[in-house]
Amino acid sequence: MNRMAHPVPPGEEALDALLGAFFKAEMPATWPAFQPPLRVLPFRPAAQAGKRRGFFLSSRVVLAASVALLLLAAWLMPRGPLSDSGSTKINPGQPAAYDPKKGPVIPELLPPGLPSLEEGQKAKEKEAEKKMKSSLRLEQKDGRGTIRIDVEELSDK
Amino acid sequence: MNATPPMADLSSTRAAPVSAARSGQERTDFDSLYQRHSREVWAIAYARWMNADTAMDIAQEAFLRLWKKWEEGEEIVNPRAWLLRVARNLAEDHAKSAFRRNGTHPPATMNGVQARDDAPLEKLEKEEAFAQLRHTLQDMPQADREILTLRYALEYNTDTIAEMLGINTTAVHMRLSRARQRLADRLKARGVSDDL
User: Fold this and answer.
1) Which residues of B fall within a CB distance of 8 Å from A22?
2) C-alpha B115, offset from chain centre
3) Across the interface, do B130 and A31 touch by the CB < 8 Å criterion?
4) Which residues 6+ apart lie within 8 Å of A76 measured at CB?
5) Tens digit of each residue's pLDDT (9 = 90 or more) over A12-52
6) Which residues of chain A neighbour B63 with C-beta distances below 8 Å?
7) Which of B30, B153, B190 sits opposite A34 (nearest CB)?
8) Confidence (pTM)
């Protein structure tokens, strides 16, 4: 069934002819030229690079200023701990008082006679404003942004 | 049949070091190298796979790797030997990955499938003979396929084959003769032709 009628001439030359024809048919007709891989480099013109550098510098200054403001605000905030000794006892079994206008009444955790938390905070803020004077400066030297915080203690006089 | 194609100019390839010092004509040098050896690299890969497209992919990959080495400034003393070795390794790696893709069925099983075009009888007979030859070659040892490919695809003479494979011409004659005999016997066993 696979027998060919006479695909190739007889003899040893027949094999040569068959092999030659076969391999020539297998060889690519057109040989592709070599294409070296393209180098993909990030394109950054000099002017754009300078702009980006300025952008990074300004963003760092802004970030530093934000952190400094955050720290300053945290430092200026009154840090009065709640006194555990003077806390009012709350009876869990007792129902909470209810004011029809204001809603549920939250019991004060401070002993009677002491100012409330809000009042204490305000008093401490005023006291801190009186005693301390602080200033924040953003300075730029040699292309480096620095933050200078001056805190000055004022005398009671 | 001992014609040697012009690309088989080996005298210039033996001592053609790929060095780090590059001038503006590096691309021209590489193109020259490609023109000289790309068919040889293709033939080595083809002898492994009996697939022209796969062999071309492997050849291109081998030259891409050489280009990379070239760019990195790595010195390769004998680019031709380097390319042939890389092509062999790539062909083997491709065999492993092909086995993973196809399991126990080699992709070459589809090579004999022919289109059902209305072709002349001679063309059909030729294609049938080629398909039988392809199957027979695939069953033969790779060394036989390699030497037959170099001889008949590249039309290399025994001296060139001997230099390329690093053996003497007597060994080439012997290998070639035995490969041809084995091929003829197998083709006869398949009933391709009694005249071989």
Assistant:
1) 129-130, 133-134, 152
2) 26
3) no
4) A125, A128, A134
5) 778 888 889 899 888 888 888 888 777 655 555 555 555 66
6) 34
7) B30
8) 0.52
Nearest to A8 among B30, B183, B193 (CB): B193
CA B110 to chain centre: 20
Number of CB atoms found within 10 A of residue A108's CB: 12
**pLDDT tens-digit profile of B118-133?**
456 777 778 888 888 8
A8 to B129: CB separation less than 8 angstroms, yes or no = yes
Task: Look up residue B151 and give its two tokens.
Answer: 């001889």
The residue of A3, A16, A22, A41 whose CB has the most chain B CBs within 10 angstroms, and thus the best one to mutate to test that interface, is: A22
Work out the number of other CB atoms within 10 angstroms of the CB of residue A112: 7
Q: Do residues A7 and A18 make contact, with C-beta atoms less than 8 angstroms apart?
A: yes
**Cα(A133)–Cα(A125) distance, rounded to whole angstroms?**
12
Here the ipTM equals: 0.71
- Using the structure block, give the residue that is written with the tokens 């840090």: A79
Alpha carbons A137 and A49: distance in angstroms, whole number? 28
